[in-house]
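Quick one, tokens below:
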């Protein structure tokens, strides 16, 4: 009796859940990071980012060399300087080190801001393309692999390359 009741309950649950499974339909996937890095507009924007990065890197490396030179000089002169003169040079070094830290922080902030501008500029266009493909091809959902951790997905449903091609076409028109 208990066994048949359990089987009946399980059967009812499956019957009730089957409409939910039937509604899932076709699910597609794309990777926003790949689109931002591999599309023509994304590559161009990344080249600009790379130039800014290289400029900042040069400035930072120059400051690092100066700090290294000052630190060595301070260590060498430690024994010959008066305590007051040593503290003065050490304070000067510490000020330059703080300036260096500010430079690094500013450079990182600039890169993050420019990267965010890139994302804000391109993402709305990409999402329009995703929506268009979803409607045209009858997808129930299209998920971004870059923002949703997915253990497995069927590579046949990866729309990234198709979206990149459409994105390249729309960017060329503008």
């Amino acid at each position: 009796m208990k066994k048949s009741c359990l089987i009946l309950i399980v059967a009812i649950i499956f019957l009730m859940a089957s409409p939910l499974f039937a509604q899932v339909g076709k699910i597609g996937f794309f990777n926003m990071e790949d689109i931002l890095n591999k599309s023509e507009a994304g590559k161009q924007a990344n080249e600009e980012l790379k130039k800014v990065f290289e400029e900042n890197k040069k400035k930072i490396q120059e400051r690092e060399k100066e700090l290294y030179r000052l630190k060595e000089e301070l260590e060498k002169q430690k024994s010959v300087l008066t305590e007051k003169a040593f503290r003065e040079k050490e304070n000067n070094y510490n000020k330059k080190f703080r300036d260096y830290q500010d430079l690094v922080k500013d450079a990182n902030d600039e890169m993050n801001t420019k990267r965010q501008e890139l994302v804000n500029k391109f993402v709305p266009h990409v999402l329009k393309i995703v929506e268009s493909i979803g409607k045209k091809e009858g997808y129930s959902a299209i998920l971004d692999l870059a923002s949703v951790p997915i253990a497995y997905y069927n590579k046949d449903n990866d729309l990234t390359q198709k979206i990149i091609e459409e994105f390249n076409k729309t960017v060329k028109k503008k």
